[in-house]
Amino acid sequence: MSEHRFGSRLRAARKKRGLTQRQLAEKVGVSQPMIARWESGRTDVVLGTAFRLAKALKVPPETLMLRNA
C-alpha cells in the first residue's frame, strides 16, 4: 500500500468527519504528530492501527487501505 495514498485517504476521511488531527489522535490513542506523519506519508502505519483509525473515523477499513474503495 502506498503510504502517500493512505495518508491522503486518511486526511480526507478525517476532514469529512470534521475532526482535527489532535481529536483523531485522542480517539486512536496516538500523538497528533503521528497523525501528521501518517497523513504526509513520512511514517508507515501498521495494519492494526489502520483498523483503529477506520473505526474512529466510522469508515470501512477498505476506505483507507484500498485504492479504489
What is the fold's blueprint, element by element?
Layout: H1 3-16, H2 21-28, H3 32-40, H4 47-57, H5 61-65
Helix pairs in contact: 1-3, 2-3
Task: Provide structural commentary.
There is one protein chain. With 69 residues, this protein is mainly α. It contains five helices and no strands. The protein has one domain: lambda repressor-like DNA-binding domains (434 Repressor (Amino-terminal Domain)), CATH 1.10.260. Helix 1 packs across helix 3 (32-40) and helix 2 (21-28) crosses helix 3. The longest helix has 14 residues, at 3-16. It is globular. The protein starts with a helix and ends with a helix.
CATH class: Mainly Alpha
CATH superfamily: lambda repressor-like DNA-binding domains
Q: How much helix is in the residues?
A: 55-70%
Structural class: mainly alpha
Instruction: From the alpha carbons, calculate the radius of gyration and give it in angstroms.
Output: 10 Å
What is the CATH architecture assignment? Orthogonal Bundle
How would you state the average pLDDT, rounded? 90
The figure for the number of domains is 1
Shape: globular
Described by strand count, sense and barrel closure, the largest sheet is: none
Element-level helix/strand string: HHHHH
Q: What is the strand content?
A: under 5%
Total number of helical segments?
5
Low-confidence stretches: none
Cα distance spanning the termini:
13 Å
CATH T-level fold name: 434 Repressor (Amino-terminal Domain)
How many strand segments?
A: 0
